[in-house]
């Protein structure tokens, strides 16, 4: 059964600013038990940082996570996004097409409002 993203997404996803250190973002991810955070600036989506970004673009490149900024290693636009009114079928199609496991959810004004993961879709 097709549902709306607003019904399955995680509301109030963890968000950080681009100048946040990777170490701080990693601590937030651990404390909130999430595998990705939205990167936003002035209520606009700047990008998305995942645990994989931290490993591949910071640790594997011998960058210091205390001085490396989230904005320098996150996945930057065009980040594929959804709106709360999109369907779960559309989300699954985008995840498959772009080989991603999570998508930011943004309001009509571009403000990040949540995140939907592959697990959220499976649970529906």
TrEMBL record:
Key words, A-Z: CBS domain
InterPro entries, A to Z: CBS_dom, CBS_dom_sf, Diverse_CBS-Domain
PANTHER family for this protein: CBS DOMAIN-CONTAINING PROTEIN, CBS DOMAIN-CONTAINING PROTEIN CBSX3, MITOCHONDRIAL
Gene3D superfamilies recorded: CBS-domain
Natural source organism: Streptomyces chiangmaiensis
Protein name: CBS domain-containing protein
SUPFAM superfamilies: CBS-domain pair (SSF54631)
Domain CBS: 9-65, 74-124
